[in-house]
Write a structure and sequence with these properties.
This protein is mainly beta and 119 residues long. 10% of the residues lie in helices and 60% in strands. The chain is built from 2 helices and 9 strands. Strands 1-2-3-5-6-7-8-9 form an 8-stranded antiparallel β-barrel. Strand 2 (38-43) and strand 3 (46-54) form a beta hairpin. The relative contact order is 0.23.
Length: 119
Amino acid sequence: TIREMIGEWRVGYLFTKEGTGSRWEIFIKNFPIVRLYGKKFIDQNNVKAWIYRFLGIKFSAPCASAVLKEIKFRDKVSVSMIYNYLPMIDNFRKVDDDIVMGIMEVKGEVSVYFYLKRM
């Protein structure tokens, strides 16, 4: 549920077999300095989608604000994060109370598989 997503989460990635990933996945794999640190879900209408950490300081990207909605994704209702200014949607499915799996779609095309772990 949306309520279960509230809080801070650390991001981890699930990469596909070498040579089969999307452009986004290839970028993330080859430029680890720009990898996301996490996401912060403040409430349904206030999400910091991209939190980075550099020299121990956390900061968020202002262009990556988002909202949470429950929408149908692959025939199941899921919590999804819809970016305010970017053509992206992150769809989440619960694994357990502290881990959710995510699929980032850019313009309807699956781009990155990842997971979030509650901090």
